[in-house]
Write a structure and sequence with these properties.
The chain has helices at 11-23, 48-55, 109-122, 147-158, 169-177, 193-202, 221-233, 262-268, 277-281, 287-296, 317-320, 324-343; strands at 2-4, 27-32, 37-42, 60-63, 85-86, 89-90, 96-100, 126-128, 162-165, 182-185, 209-213, 239-242, 274-275, 301-305. By secondary structure, the protein is α/β, with parallel strands linked by helices. The chain folds into two domains: 2-65, 2-Layer Sandwich (Alpha-Beta Plaits), CATH 3.30.70.1140; 85-343, Aldolase class I (TIM Barrel), CATH 3.20.20. The protein has an eight-stranded parallel sheet with strand order 12-11-10-9-8-7-14-13. β7, α3 and β8 form a beta-alpha-beta unit. α5 (169-177) packs parallel to α6, α6 (193-202) crosses α7 (221-233) and α10 runs parallel beside α12. It is globular. The structure holds phosphoenolpyruvate (PEP) and manganese (II) ion (MN). Residues 102, 279, 305, 315-316 line the site of manganese (II) ion.
Amino acid sequence: MILPREKKLTEAQLKEVTEIVESFNCKLQTIIGTERSIYAILGDERSETMVNRLEGLSYIDRVDRIQTQNKLMSRHSDLASHKIQIGGVTVGEELLVIAGQCTVDPKNPNYFIETAHAVKEAGAKVLRGGVWKPRTTPHSFQGDNRSIETVLEARAQTGLPVNIEVMDEEQLAIAMDAKIDMVQVGTRNALNYSLLKKIGSATKDNGTLVLLKRGLHMGKTSEFVSAAEYIVAAGNPNVLLCPRGTAPGLDGYRNHPDESITPLLKEQTWAPVIVDPSHSVGRAVYVPFCSAAAIAYGADGVCIESHLDPQEGIGDDPKQSVTPEVLKNLIVELKGLWSLRTKFQSP
Ligand code: PEP
Ligand code: MN
């Protein structure tokens, strides 16, 4: 990582630095943070000559060679001061609630619009809704391109920023055209490195946030952080980590609840953690417990499936969506738990 003396390099300085880095067969990636810009050297950073030449430039303070695998995501990276903002919330400073239906039903778009108003009233700051769905079988409903219009209409009516999942480049391009505020990488794609790179570069200049779900079969905490490193290394530092349960282990829960990973993530990385209790426990009745545990463990927010009338929904909604009324009471309780986060902060 190249640390200039000022907060960012001028164009001429950037050109000079890029030429040096490229002459050593590395690539320079600029990552624009809120506090300062970061210049990451991608490739083999060990060349002493390259480091010496860069450190010899009058406008360079030093070249930091953080020895961790995830040098951009590291708590010790200069990106640690980067602040992510959405829906009027500076993430980490107050509770961020993302809520909305699992799936937009193209046959009942009005439900989504009405749910959007109701979750806003309940206190959600970002609206979620699946336009395209990763389904276990190809015979299940896969989503519908037309639903993006419904999501945009809900955004226009409520003023809430919106989150949708993208699974491939075509969907990513549609989401970028629609200026979607937050794209979601689902659990199944959390290890799809080429998609992570494409998402990072498509979103690097337009302020789009990326909600990265934890992979269903991910093991070590660092594997999750590395997936996020791909997005940041491609240029976008606006990444939120989303534990959502790993492969099933407890009878009764859909997946194995993993909200206890938050303190471990906080030790390794500066990135905010937004827990998804809905996919973790998989039943509406358990969602409040898991959400409360998530905040107690230090999460910066939650992503909750909510539907005006869950039984009328499709996808996961009938099973795991809470009503906006339940959501509203839950948000009050979660705000009450917020101070626990700071009481038990990770070392
Ligand atoms: C979803 O958010 O509806 C979803 C499919 O998420 P996940 O990738 O966590 O299963
Ligand atoms: Mn879902």
